[in-house]
Structure formats: C-alpha cells, structure tokens
Write a structure and sequence with these properties.
By secondary structure, the chain is of the alpha+beta class. Strand 13 and strand 14 form a beta hairpin. It has a six-stranded mixed β-sheet with strand order 1-2-3-4-9-8, with helices on one face.
Length: about 240
C-alpha cells in the first residue's frame, strides 16, 4: 500500500479484495491498507506442512477465520503442559489432517497461538472459527524476569491512533541488565517526546517494566518484501 501511494498508481490498479497471509498483522495495519487501497481484506491461515487449500479464511464479518473441519481437526492446548483447553481459551494450535494421504499429520504442534471462538458466526456458516493469530510460542521474550510476547506490545501500540502499523523491538544487555527498546513510526504532527512517554507508561502498567521508546517519522523503519523482522535480540550476538 505504501509503495502504491508513493508511485501514485492507485487509480491504475483496480483491486477489490486482498487476501493476506504468511505474516501476522494487526488491526492498525488492516485499517491502513483498507484506507489507502480501498479494498476488502481477508485473513488466510495455512501451513506448508498441511498443503492446500489452506486451513481457513475469515468471512466478511471479520470475526475470526472459518476453518475446514471436514479437512482438518484442530485442538487448542496449553503449550507447556499439553493439556487440551476448552473453546474460548488461548493456547497453541494443534492440527490433525483428516483426508491428507501422502504425508498425514497427527496432533501436529504448530507453535501458533490462538483460540477456537465458541459463539456461532453471524454470517451463518457452520464451519468453526479460529481467532486471529496472536503470536507463536517461540516468540516469547524474557525481559527482567517477565515473559513477554510481541503481540502484547503490538496490542498496546494499537491503542495509540497516532502510531502507524510499523514497529520494531530491540533487546540488548547493557550495564549488566536487559533493556528493551521499542521503535515506532508516526506523522510529523505529533509531539515525539510526549508520545514516547505515554507509550512507555502504558507498557509499564500493562506488562510490568519500563521500555525505552524511540519515536521516528513515517518511512524510517526498514520494510521487507518477505516476513518483516519485528524483534531483534542483540543479547547473544
């Protein structure tokens, strides 16, 4: 969307719908793509190990992704104990293929974190739904004795309308202690110091430690045509 706007070719690209997969994306990025391109957006979820036709996709109601339960059986488990969790609780997605013959999977642990939405969908489809992917079990960072997932940081950033969908987290070990820095983008019409302080304060209240927050202008953070690297852990470099 940024590149289309930069090149001024929006009127030449007649897109109506966009199917976004491969990388987790939040409400801020969804809203930005929708506003800049004016298209209807869909989340799609799949794994290379499962093959086609993917695992699920959201309906126009945008309340989770319907998955094909005649094709794949999904459980949500506690990623530490392996206990199967009831519908509505967040945990790790475990997949068992039902019709795949060449390389079937039995209780395959995906490391993706989500939940099965227990309520029926307003679209009327009987296919069950997974909520948006909140992150991965191997994404967890331990900072000052606190377990943190990047999705927790992203959810906090989404509460600040002046912050764009682009952010980066850097973890360093300075002066004998771990330090977490959060880089965010915003427009030039915002008081950078004030925004930085408000974000740091909210992270402290929600997660339990105070990060260093650096606010930069739109376009400063690196972009990637592949999966964007949101977390850079410099402690072991």
């Amino acid at each position: 969307a940024e590149e289309i706007a930069k090149r001024g070719v929006k009127d030449k690209i007649h897109l109506k719908k966009g199917i976004i997969g491969s990388e987790r994306w939040g409400d801020t990025m969804r809203k930005r793509i929708h506003e800049e391109l004016g298209i209807e957006l869909f989340d799609i979820y799949g794994l290379t190990e499962i093959y086609g036709p993917g695992i699920g996709i959201n309906c126009p109601g945008e309340t989770g992704m319907h998955y094909w339960d005649d094709y794949i059986y999904i459980e949500i488990i506690d990623p530490i104990t392996g206990e199967v969790l009831p519908d509505g609780e967040y945990g790790e997605i475990v997949c068992t293929t039902l019709v795949k013959e060449g390389a079937p999977l039995i209780r395959y642990r995906t490391h993706d974190l989500s939940r099965i939405i227990p309520e029926p969908c307003k679209c009327g489809s009987s296919f069950p739904r997974l909520d948006i992917i909140k992150g991965r079990t191997d994404d967890m960072m331990k900072i000052k004795g606190v377990n943190v997932f990047p999705s927790q940081i992203e959810e906090i950033l989404q509460t600040f309308p002046e912050v764009s969908s682009e952010y980066q987290i850097r973890i360093s070990h300075l002066d004998g202690r771990d330090t977490l820095r959060i880089y965010v983008e915003t427009s030039g019409h915002t008081d950078f110091a004030d925004l930085s302080g408000r974000i740091a304060s909210k992270v402290k209240s929600k997660i339990g430690f105070t990060p260093l927050v650096k606010v930069v202008e739109l376009g400063v953070l690196p972009r990637s045509e592949k999966k964007t690297k949101r977390v850079i852990d410099e402690r072991y470099e």
